[in-house]
Amino acid sequence: MSGNLGGQKIKQNNFKKQYEFKCLARVSMLAIVATAGVPANAQEASEQESTVLEPIIITARKTEERIKDVPQSITVVRSQDIDSNALDPSGAIAAKSPNVVWQSASVGRQFFSIRGISSLGVPNNFSDGTIGFTVDGMPQSMLSSQNMLFDIDHVEVLRGPQGTLWGTNALGGAINVTTKQPDGEHEAKITTEYGEHGYAMGEATLGGVLIPDALNGRMAIRFNRFDGDIDSLSTDDLGARKIGAFRGGLQFNGFDDTTVTLTGNYLRDNSNAPFSLLRGAPGFPISGVVTEPDYVTTHADVGLTIKHEFEDFSLTSITGFQNNKMTARTEANDVLIPSPFPLVGSNVWHGVDKEKIFSQEIRLNSLEGDDIRWVVGGSLNYSDLDHSCEASQCAPFPYSGLVTMDTNLRALNLGLFGDASIPLGEKWEVSFGGRLSHDDIKLKQTNDLGVPGLTGGSDADGTYLTGRAALAYKWNDTAQSYVSIARGHGTRIYPLFSYPNNGIVADAYPAAENWTYEIGTKVALFDDRLELDGSIFYNDVKNGVLSYYDPRLGGFATTFQSYETSGFELQARAAITDELSFNAGVGYTHTRLGSDGASSIFEGNRVPNIPEWSVSAGLAYETDAEVVGLPGSFSAAIDYQYRSSRPADVQSTFNLDAYSIVNARVGWKDASGDFEIYGFGRNLFDERYETFGAAGYFGSQVVSVSQGRVLGVGISKSF
């Protein structure tokens, strides 16, 4: 009887999902029909209006295009949105992007998810991600993508599989960061901020022409400090940060049709974030660690970009080298969190991760304005990671706490790719692309005592195809609709935090694969004063790597599982007047773990830490200060974001609470625009929302929490 009821429930869930998807498709088509004829009339009625939206130029398809011409669901996050949350730029990206989540468990365990495509639990290594992340064309690992972003031009959030153009492990999408380039534009600026809990920020930028028609330069430096806002029974306040970062670049343009850009970047981040907190503890958030945690993360990179314009096409070469290191000292004994092995005193976990990454991409592009847009190229990405672990959790009994485990993980990825868009008459356009990839992964595990049973190695390789295709229809010059299909593919995964069993290393987990289907519409209204875009999607994922707490083992286990996600995004931006602008986005994601995989015990549960609803909205206003008898101008901005509740783990043991965040900023600039003083409030209502959660021992619930409210002031001066 119970089996029949379970089958009926699954059928009902499938019917509900199909019904919701059909309803969304019908709503999208109604919107297309309703708006198809509007822009022309609106333009005739508004020819004399001067207020228009600035066009957004992106490089989602490896060439410069207007965002409204690209048949994909894309969000562009502005530099000021990143700067407004200097200590958590990744959180700022997610806050502005519907159906995007920044999951922050602890230092070194932070990652993005898009449209519910996510690491199921905690990532097993720094390549176990589902979202591609690049900075100026250089692919980043999960270790380097956690770094602070500054001196940013803009960030592109691309939804749907992006492996065709952006490489490995981009099943759910890609996030492309573009920094401000040494293009010769003059800028000399100093900014400083002070706020609650010892918050301080200082930044200086300098850029311009060094040698006319030959050499440009740019540099930026930033320091951040925060004293922490998590109480602790035995240590100083936790959640503290000290960050120093530098970025510099030179651009050589004295060659005919050739530009050479050399960049360098260095960052050091010191923090004492707790590994986890007991949910609901009196005085929450509060930690019971005996020894203060200490994390030191460093990142250094060098990039070389060469561009040459030929008569019929352009050549681009991007070479990158990165050196990442994270040293962690984490207290495993929290007196507030129940444990089956109560400890007296300290139980410190020491870990060191050293990662070197070399990347190379060479591509040929069609020229801007060509009727057919195309790109072909090849890429190489090589990473070499050394992981050292010294703690009771790093090795089995009787070596627990006595041996240091060392793991070396090397991964090579080679790829050939191509993508093109071809107009079919005046209304239709077809675009398609593909990538042939090859992975070669090697794992070696040793220990400082030379124990044979804790020494071993394994390797895995694979060759696979990914691709995408889209068909777009232009209703008129300001509206288009599209349908697309894309296939994503990840790499095979070795758990980094494991050890051999009798000298045998378990095989790598299978590579995740997915198919994504999308329907969307983009439209500009009222003479380009309002832009709307909407999309609906369905994802079918196989072999998602899953980590969970297994009470039968009394510890954590790893397996793989299929899952499905579906939903929609709606986005809008508007220039209401010359002084007032508006932006908003809403996303809905339905997720469901399937029956295919190593275990079916989680079938029907939701993907952990994925909210069904995500909402963001913002207003910005600037006006002449003469209304109060002052020179210059006043500005004000307010942003709002909402995330609904979501399951903490794959068992749906408990839900992380829904939350709303409000940020605000008011400022005054002098008449020249060179000097500004402003006040800000980040997380105005001090919402301590939960960023990650897991089931602990004896029914306890452990979570990670966000930073609380910071009120402060800032001053900026340009020269």
Write structural notes for this entry.
- The structure is a single chain.
- With 719 residues, the chain is mainly beta.
- It has one domain (36-718): Beta Barrel (Maltoporin, Chain A), CATH 2.40.170.
- Helix content is 8%, strand content 55%.
- The chain contains five helices and 38 strands.
- The strands form seven sheets. The protein has a 22-stranded antiparallel barrel.
- Strand 4 and strand 5 (109-114) form a beta hairpin.
- The protein is globular and about 75 Å long.
- The termini are far apart.
Helix/strand-derived category reads mainly beta
CATH architecture descriptor name: Beta Barrel
How much helix is in the residues?
under 10%
Q: State the CATH class.
A: Mainly Beta
Indicate the mean pLDDT: 88
Number of helices: 5
**Inertia-based shape:** globular
Rounded to the nearest angstrom, the radius of gyration is 26 Å
* Unreliable residue runs: 1-48
Largest sheet: 22 strands, antiparallel, barrel
Query: Assembly type of the shown chains?
Result: single chain
Distance between the termini: 78 Å
What is the CATH topology assignment?
A: Maltoporin, Chain A
- Number of separate domains: 1
The proportion of residues in beta strands is: over 45%
Count all strands and give the number.
38
CATH superfamily annotation: TonB-dependent receptor, beta-barrel domain
